[in-house]
Amino acid sequence: MALDGIVLSNLVYELSEKLTDGRINKIYQPEPDAIVLTIKNNRTNYRLLISASASLPLMYLTDRQQANPMTAPNFCMLLRKHISGGRILGITQPGLERIACFEIEHLNELGDLCRKKLIVELMGKYSNIIFCDEDLTILGAVKLISANVSSVREVLPGRTYFIPDTQHKLDPFKMTKEDFTGNVLSQPQKVMKAIYGSITGFSPIAAEELCFRAGVDSSESTAALTQAEKDKLYDTFAALISDIRGHNYSPNIIYKGDEPVEYASFPLTCYGDGRSVPFDSISELLQKYYAEKNAVTRMRQRSYDLRHITGNALDRCRRKYGLQKKQLKDTEKRDKYRIWGEMINTYGYEVEPGASKLDCVNFYTNEPISVPLDPQLTPHENSVKYFNRYTKLKRTNEAVTVQLAETQDEIELLESIAAAIGLAESEEDLSQIREELAEYGYIKKHSGHKGKGRTAKSKPLHYLSSDGFDIYVGKNNFQNEEVTFKIADGGDWWFHAKGVTGSHVIVKTGGRELPDSTYEDAARLAAYYSSSRGADKVEVDYIQRKEVRKSPGKKAGFVIYHTNYSMVIEPDITGLRQV
After folding, report:
1. Of 415, 404, 410, nearest in space to 476 by CA
2. How far apart are CA 60 and CA 50, in angstroms?
3. Are 502 and 475 in contact (CB under 8 A)?
4. Is the pLDDT score of 298 beyond 70?
5. What pLDDT, in 10s, does the model give residues 96-134?
6. Residue 472: closest CA among 522, 430, 513, 516
7. Are 33 and 53 in contact (CB under 8 A)?
8. Residue 166's pLDDT is what?
9. b/e burial code for range 330-350 (CB count within 10 A of at least 16 → b)
């Protein structure tokens, strides 16, 4: 989601607590539309990133260094000239607008105290960082906008800064119940859209959460709301605004699996199937959310070719499997032709020339049977025709049975590779998957000098159980083979999600008895690193490693086992420590 007015109010409150009375030590401009302020306050150095990127406007405290250009851009030099060494008097937000205003006190060239305002507008493609005098005369901006670009407002030195009221939204801090029901809920549209389209600072997710808490269908038309539903909506809205006024924020990220899907400064109860992770700092939340979101996006981009190749191969194999099953079913009638041939050989002397059928008793079942005949053929020729059909269908059945098993094995292999692509966390993981696809002929092997351009080998995941036992998790078929048959000893314990593709999980016992909590930790990992990760509960098989065997004739990572134990567990690895 984009940073909305509620999240920004949380951020402004946090920055006010940490940066007010702080001194600006350094100013950088690492990107054309982003600046970094280093601020010292209460013996602590803070690094504030402010980005006016059209695609991702952001502002938060960060501990990460960023590369800076050798020559400072003009806007950076302007800020250094005026507010380097300046003291932050306060940080404010007008209403719930996506605007933060830093009031800064500094000394001018004559040594006199002056005040400036650094205004941060985080409004999507209209985002900007604007530097103003105390009377709101614009001195400069990271994006200068002339009248040729915008007819609403010029952002040029000498112009007066103002907040354009183009959407005519209502200030939530000044709204009454009559405003809410009479202006917001009178809009002829869906309830959710009426809320975020009419109230300043509310994003679609905030409107969705408001409807969910009030027990109202967000996609319902405002015209269909009862008075009781309108009253409930307003009471829920008033309670949320009261929390914002009192700075009662609850920053949290909603995860689905490993992927962050949403964040807010209040509890998101509308994501019933998501996992909520709370944060003490909204800056920490923003930094983590966008770092993880970018990591997921980058991995999807880098793995696109592998997913495309694997997906196409899977589709092809599944179509082939369907055709082979149909072909196999067609061979089920082969014995009928054999029996017909035998009946003709046995009772053929009774057949009159030109007869179209033979009525006789099936000596296998002692039941009457009628055998179709070709009147143009002799009984012997009819029997030869049926025996030839039987032989052909028998050969087809034998060949297709083998092909069907091979296709099934290929589907299992490709499904395991597809699952491994989803588990990949680094370029090394993807490289190992490419190696596997190349080994099985799905992509060409890269030729070249030995060792040149080779990436580091990806290693299995290593966790510690709550009782201190080492647990290893394979992320692909090669690693599954490694953890099961190289890392594990016979007395170690082996775990795998039942009946689905997933990781081999090994617990190193060191000759000790495993406590129940370690069994559960390993089972949770096996459930989590499987294609059933999104399920509420997953059945997991576990057995001693010495009972696990390689599947004869199968590819790496495929095993067989018998007399295993099973448990049903949630695929939740919260609290497990990765080494």
Report:
1. 415
2. 7
3. no
4. no
5. 999 999 999 999 888 889 999 999 999 988 999 999 999
6. 522
7. yes
8. 67
9. ebeebeebbbbbbbbbebbee
